Amino acid sequence: MIAEDQTVIRKALVALLALEEDIDVVATAADGEQAVSVACAYAPDVILMDAKMPRMDGVAAMRAILQKSPDIRIVMLTTFDTDDLVFEAISAGAHGYLLKDAEESEILAAIRSAARGEPRLSPTIATKILAEFRRVKAPRRPSPAREEEPLTERENEVLRLVSAGKNNRDIAREMGLAEGTVKNHVSTILAKLHLRSRTELAIRALLDR
């Protein structure tokens, strides 16, 4: 299944996959909400999902789909490679993350890998993840002035939701808080744990599980 709001790209992907004997495009969707309903109706093995679509973004659509059908494998195919979006998608359950300038062979390989349950990332994305992983895992020099401050119960809940791949808007909705309040909590958590970005925070939370 292909979920892509740009008609030209969606049709090009359908044409590409139609040439492969072992891949059938069972359905397409032009926005996030349609992707959720179509995925529930057709139960595809793999979905190529654009990250930025109208009505519901790709990550939110992926969460909704996986909540109902956890066996579906989703590969994000997008022009966006910002750190927050990459880790939000992966934390939310993406089996792959490719940029739209990927070679056709790379897209096909990602689909087949996802069908086997194997993750696949574009080299650019893999480099980002490895760099952040090494940064977070790097041994810290002991320093009393740099000791981590304990998190409050609410901050721990925010941290848990960040590690689940949720953005500030989703966290605010789930916790019944203003989005600005959640943003302040994230900033406080970063300061307490001596981390520099939301990406490092997500990796740290995943490593500490």
Topology:
Elements: E1 2-3, H1 7-18, E2 28-29, H2 32-42, E3 46-49, H3 58-68, E4 73-78, H4 83-92, E5 96-99, H5 104-115, E6 120-121, H6 123-137, H7 153-163, H8 168-175, H9 179-193, H10 198-207
Parallel strand pairs: 1-2, 1-3, 3-4, 4-5, 5-6
Helix pairs in contact: 2-3, 3-4, 4-10, 6-10, 7-9, 7-10, 8-9
Q: Could you please describe the fold and organization of this structure?
A:
This protein has 209 residues and is α/β, with parallel strands linked by helices. The protein folds into 2 domains: 2-132, Rossmann fold; 139-207, Arc Repressor Mutant, subunit A, CATH 1.10.10. 55% of the residues lie in helices and 10% in strands. It is built from 10 helices and 6 strands. The protein has helices spanning 7-18, 32-42, 58-68, 83-92, 104-115, 123-137, 153-163, 168-175, 179-193, 198-207; strands spanning 2-3, 28-29, 46-49, 73-78, 96-99, 120-121. Strands 2-1-3-4-5-6 form a 6-stranded parallel β-sheet, sandwiched between helices. Helix 4 (83-92) links the parallel strand 4 (73-78) and strand 5. The longest helix is centred in the middle third of the chain and has 15 residues, at 123-137. The protein is globular, with a radius of gyration of 18 Å. 34% of the residues are buried.
Keywords:
Rossmann fold, Arc Repressor Mutant, subunit A, six-stranded parallel sheet, 10 helices, 10% strand
Short summary of the structure?
The protein has helices spanning 7-18, 32-42, 58-68, 83-92, 104-115, 123-137, 153-163, 168-175, 179-193, 198-207, and strands spanning 2-3, 28-29, 46-49, 73-78, 96-99, 120-121.
